[in-house]
Request: fold
Amino acid sequence: MQKIIQTLSRLKNVVGMDVVELSPKYDASGISTAVACKTLRELVLATINKKVKSLV
Reply:
């Protein structure tokens, strides 16, 4: 998953990110929700880090 996040964070002109098709009704344990939140957080942080490094 880390390679996917690194690849996605290298994309230029990203204007938005979205999580689709997450159904809490079918995620009784909450694992899918946790993975979706972690993935979104990692993508946001990677994007922010890329922007900060470009300013230096």
Remarks:
- The longest helix spans residues 31-55.
- The chain has a mean pLDDT of 82.
